[in-house]
Amino acid sequence: MKADVEELRKQFASKLPALSKSLKDWYDEETAAIDGSIVSAAPSGSGGSIISARPAIDSKRVVDATLITEEVLDIELPPEIIKAGGYETYEAMLDHIVPLLEKVFTGELTVKKRKRVKEPETV
Question: Domain limits of the chain?
């Protein structure tokens, strides 16, 4: 069994560059301001602004990156491994998620499988 885990680690390592690039592209798109002037025009008194008081990307939006993990790794991004609250930077997200994704990929970490929603029956 240990040999199987080692082989899966090698497979994960070979997919890591594609995973990192795809996640970076996704992160940049998700965190880009709809209007770049919003952030620069935000009030910035001594108390700061409402925009700077939240993470760059929240945990609920990170779940959407499952499209990337399914494409690159052929596994879902389990919500259980995402940091509650989200991430301030891409690097923080990658540093937290990648080691956990590797453990899910190799089977060292088991997570709940999400149930698929049934399609409504047509009469």
Answer: 2-31+49-106
